[in-house]
TrEMBL record:
Biased composition (Basic and acidic residues): 14-23
Cellular component per GO, a single term: cytoplasm
This protein's UniProt keywords: Biotin, Ligase
Record's protein name: biotin--[biotin carboxyl-carrier protein] ligase
Alphabetized InterPro entries for the sequence: aa-tRNA-synth_II/BPL/LPL, Biotin_CoA_COase_ligase, BPL_C, BPL_LPL_catalytic
UniProt EC number: 6.3.4.15
Single GO term (MF): biotin--[biotin carboxyl-carrier protein] ligase activity
Annotated TM spans: none
Taxon lineage: Bacteria, Bacillati, Actinomycetota, Actinomycetes, Micrococcales
Residue numbers spanned by region Disordered: 1-36
Amino acid sequence: MVHSDGPIRATSADPHDPSEGDRGAPSNLYEEPNLRNPVIHEWTTATASTNDRLVELLEAGADLPDFAVVGTDHQTAGRGRLDRVWTVPPGRALTFSVPVRVPSDTPADALGWLPVVTGVAVRAALAEAGVAAQLKWPNDVLVDGRKICGILARMVVHGGRTSVVIGAGVNVGLTADDLRAGGVPDGAATSVLLEGGRTDRDALLGSLVAHLRRTATAVLDEGSAFAEGATAAEARAAMVTLGSAVRVHLPGGDQLVGTAVDLDAHANLLVRPDGAAEDATVRVAAGDVVHVRPA
């Protein structure tokens, strides 16, 4: 995936003769989409936030198919949880967002799993690129404790429909110097390059979207039963938070210290506070989790 000269959209008067402004788009833009060749609705050299751009498109009435990609080579004002702003040098990350329409009969308790199963999809795509990764609740992907991907999901109501916008930023070509220049503490983050994986962003995007289609569709199809199904079990098995001693920084400034023991039916984290009875847990729906040590 290389730089483009402006917005790239999945429409062209002649799909086999892209215009000057379309040069540099992901190589699959003008091909028939398939499971490893996702629809690229738009790809730009730079944008503030792919999530915000996709929300803007949906609210303006754009009719995007599920899992159509809105991406950029350089996200200049990306936000993570708690509105943290983060940026990386141009072309060093895979940064994109996709919409997923929510059927009207989908139970609300299932939707909390979408960020988690996005992590499952990222982990599977990274494995195909030669990088073994793990999940951290609620929306990070790690390699031996070092962050390689962040995920942010947002619900949008548009035209009488509800969609979840799922954004991901995978560190692909970041070097150790890039991380230091960005003020990242040693050992806090990594990239596909630093882990010795294959850094083909086209291949990684195709793999990730294909796996996300599988995991997100499972959430929507299985509904309330999802939490006890195979994909939820896959997520739990990959999540290093579970079984770890944690310190959770809760909204409002409180802290909860204990052991993370499971995910509930809504994908909330269940924490057994230090000193509490074996079966006593606190449900955490939102918070910043620090892994203290293995339990």
